[in-house]
């Protein structure tokens, strides 16, 4: 079975994805996707994310504020620790830097990122990192704040092999999204071919970034199978091997997540 290591179940277009959340979860299981991590993007939605994880044993939650959310409202380390301590929360994030969508003086983003790393270190829960057009600052702050002591995942990885090796040096896994299935993503496909399987995760980032053959349509966790199939093809190995390894990696990294049936 596969795990979708990063999705936003609370933000899905349910009408376009089977009607209701039960249908989405059933479709995931039908496609061999047994578990999913529903990622928090702001404090207002966090209770919904948490409730999803409480209600559905196949769903886990994270706690955090996305780098592009509400520049004027900065969460304190204490608040982040409080929400991260809930038992169904297995990770801190998504956090990081996004210089693509936010412009101007982004010191507030870097400060927010540092606070999330502090909360992760304090609660012992790994980090989910979102980095866009900010690779050097992201790696620098991870290093400065000793994020390697807690580790985590570079979600929706879209950089080159050099950045991948630097992320692994800092104890961060590499998670591939539907981007790796896009024909133009040659640099990323190269990373997917070379990455040691022990460091690999897969995700959808649903409702965004649907993989080929659903590109341009609303995404859902079931489609992580297409991401995994594509990587299996790139490496000339079986889908089962990708599924086994990435699922093992997921539960090893997010120790708070308990698999259904285990
Ligand atoms: Zn993200
Ligand atoms: Zn996300």
How far is it from the N-terminal to the C-terminal residue, by CA?
13 Å
Order of helices and strands: EHEHEHEHEHEHEHEHH
Q: Into which percent range does the helicity of residues fall?
A: 25-40%
Low-confidence sequence ranges: none
**Distinct compounds present:** zinc ion
**What does the radius of gyration come to?**
17 Å
- What's the rounded overall pLDDT mean? 96
For the biggest β-sheet, the strand order reads 1-2-3-4-5-6-7-8
How much of the residues is beta strand, in percent?
A: 15-25%
**Secondary-structure class:** alpha/beta
* Major beta-sheet overview: 8 strands, parallel
Please state the overall shape, judged from the principal axes of the Cα atoms.
Answer: globular
Count of beta strands = 8
Helical stretch tally: 9
Question: What is this structure's SSE topology?
Answer:
Elements: E1 2-7, H1 21-30, E2 33-38, H2 46-55, E3 59-63, H3 77-84, E4 89-98, H4 107-123, E5 127-132, H5 135-144, E6 152-154, H6 161-169, E7 172-176, H7 186-194, E8 200-202, H8 224-235, H9 239-253
Parallel strand pairs: 1-2, 2-3, 3-4, 4-5, 5-6, 6-7, 7-8
This protein binds zinc ion (2 copies).
One zinc ion (ZN) is lined by residues 6, 8, 39, 94, 205.
Account of the 3D structure:
- Strand 3 (about 60-65), helix 3 and strand 4 form a beta-alpha-beta unit.
- About 40% of the residues lie in helices and about 15% in strands.
- Helix 3 (about 75-85) packs across helix 4 (about 105-125) and helix 8 (about 225-235) crosses helix 9 (about 240-255).
- With about 260 residues, the chain is α/β, with parallel strands linked by helices.
- The structure holds zinc ion (2 copies).
- One zinc ion (ZN) binds near residues 6, 8, 39 and 94.
